[in-house]
Amino acid sequence: MQTAPKIYVAGHRGMVGSAIVRRLLADGHPADRLVTRTHKELDLTDQAAVRAFFAAEKPDQVYLAAAKVGGIHANNVYPAEFIYDNLMMEANIVDAAYRSGVRRLLLLGSSCIYPKLAPQPMAEAALLTGTLEPTNEPYAIAKIAGIKLCESYNRQYGAQGVDYRSVMPTNLYGPGDNYHPENSHVIPALLRRFHEAKAAGAPDVTIWGSGTPRREFLYVDDMASACVHVMDLDKATYDRHTEPMLSHINVGYGDDVTILELAQAVARTVGYAGTIHTDPAKPDGTPRKLMDSSRLQSLGWSARVDLDEGLQLAYQDFLRNDNRLG
Ligand SMILES: NC(=O)C1=CN([C@@H]2O[C@H](COP(=O)(O)OP(=O)(O)OC[C@H]3O[C@@H](n4cnc5c(N)ncnc54)[C@H](OP(=O)(O)O)[C@@H]3O)[C@@H](O)[C@H]2O)C=CC1
Ligand SMILES: C[C@H]1O[C@H](OP(=O)(O)OP(=O)(O)OC[C@H]2O[C@@H](n3cnc4c(=O)[nH]c(N)nc43)[C@H](O)[C@@H]2O)[C@@H](O)[C@@H](O)C1=O
């Protein structure tokens, strides 16, 4: 019988990394063929430590789901960390993976790699065709560098079997999300705000920005299944659907909502009946970010969990964790 590949999931305690681990285990991947390290055990921005880890573990496959991540406010306030940490993690992992003989790696980028005013829905070919959204330009530049790292290692070392891929997720949410009141993304922030308003009997809740930006939201377990799907595609199939210098694959749900519509859906999920105000003094970010996910669909994958069901599941996760939010 063939031994299962040894898989390293970088960022396994994060929202997406933990969902990838769940998916792999549910698919029957043996737990003893999974390699993980916490941030405390291995700082992925430390080149020497990352090289030593890969040289010792020699995984067969790598899911790169570790990153410095946050919502619009965190991106704006910590731009140095968002560009430096993400560039370092990607460069260290991709290069150490190559040096230790890893053939297959999947890097997670983000829909913010596309120009602020890219035609909608945004196809993979929109990359590097225009100016980025200023609130997340440093993070986006690091993510674009990640795509180009994978492509460059494929181009130079492909003959040695190197096959590094990347997926660009839309905005994600679900169990294991970050519920910080300021640094989080919009769904966990609003789940918390509406929950606390309901508990306090508050008559109104204010959301950031104008409420008019449109966002596409994908439930994290769908994202994990897309990651495993892309990782496991045979090389000929992947190559047939991509190009050497346009190799990334969008992962979206297929539909978007305005932020005000999202807030109304969160209020329904939580059972909050008060008034919703907007705060135009806060940034809106990109006006619209709907992915064209036809490349992935043609590779046989589509999302399963709709926004209403996903919000219910996310709220249950919030309630389970409410006592340790502080
Ligand atoms: N969440 C979203 O809406 C979206 C996410 N993505 C991408 O998906 C991927 C996963 O994101 P998500 O799961 O949401 O993020 P999380 O913040 O939930 O998880 C990221 C993980 O990376 C770890 N990490 C961060 N810095 C380091 C470091 N220096 N050394 C070791 N580990 C580190 C974190 O550990 P610790 O917490 O201990 O620092 C954490 O476990 C990222 O690449 C992100 O850019 C893309 C689009 C949308
Ligand atoms: C995933 C993605 O995430 C970020 O980009 P973003 O799409 O702007 O993400 P966001 O979830 O923070 O906001 C979405 C919208 O929602 C509005 N909004 C309302 N009220 C709250 C609120 O309370 N919190 C937050 N965070 N936003 C709020 C907010 O004003 C904005 O219009 C980047 O990290 C980017 O790099 C990236 O990859």
Automatic annotation (TrEMBL):
Marked site (Important for catalytic activity) residue numbers: 110, 112
Family: Belongs to the NAD(P)-dependent epimerase/dehydratase family. Fucose synthase subfamily.
Binding site for NADP(+): 11-17, 108-111, 143, 169-172, 185
Name of the protein in its database record: GDP-L-fucose synthase
Chain's gene name: fcl
UniProt-listed HAMAP family: GDP_fucose_synth
Record flagged with keyword Oxidoreductase: yes
Entry's Gene Ontology molecular function annotations: GDP-L-fucose synthase activity; isomerase activity; NADP+ binding
BP-aspect Gene Ontology terms: 'de novo' GDP-L-fucose biosynthetic process
A Pfam family: Epimerase
Enzyme kind, highest EC tier: oxidoreductase
Domain NAD-dependent epimerase/dehydratase residue range list: 7-235
